[in-house]
Amino acid sequence: MNTVYKNTSANTFESRIEHRNKLDLLRSRVYLLRGRDRLWMTMYFENGIPISQMARMCGRNPSTVQRRICKVTRRLLEGEYIKCLRNRDRFSTREMVIAREHFLYGLSYKKIAKRHCTSRYNVIKTLRGILGVLASTE
């Protein structure tokens, strides 16, 4: 049980509450991920497994695992893909797939273009259109 000390500032409690809220948000959004990212996030946030142990199990360098967890965490907290999900009626299926691959999985324009047999220019144009729709809904 946590003990409350008289000299503890209100900011400390607010930062702890904010931190807990972010953890809850991350836990609620992990289902959006796939494969290794989902596994690592579940192992780290739900099960509390240390990064060094996760790296040994996966045969990766601990810094690689840590960087990937930080990137995925940042993407989940930014919520660009969540905004797309809220406005999915404004996007085609293809646009939603491109948004997921870019905003959630962090794929480059080149990889997205290769997956969809299109040009990088077309991917950039689609993402600009998506960002324009998201900006107009705010």
Brief characterization of the structure:
73% of the residues lie in helices and 0% in strands. The protein has 138 residues and is an all-alpha fold.
Describe, in plain words, how this protein is organized in 3D:
The longest helix has 20 residues. Helix content is 73%, strand content 0%. The model has no long low-confidence stretch (mean pLDDT 88). It contains eight helices and no strands. The protein is flat and about 45 Å long. With 138 residues, the chain is mostly helical. Helix 6 packs across helix 8 and helix 7 packs across helix 8. It folds into two domains: 69 residues, Orthogonal Bundle (Arc Repressor Mutant, subunit A); 58 residues, Arc Repressor Mutant, subunit A (Orthogonal Bundle). The termini are far apart.
**Strand coverage percent:** under 5%
Give me the Rg, rounded.
19 Å
User: Would you identify the regions where 5 or more consecutive residues have pLDDT less than 50?
Assistant: none
How many strands, which pairing sense, and closed or not: the largest β-sheet?
none
CATH class of the largest domain: Mainly Alpha
Q: What is the correct CATH architecture of the largest domain?
A: Orthogonal Bundle
Number of strands: 0
Distance from first to last alpha carbon: 41 Å
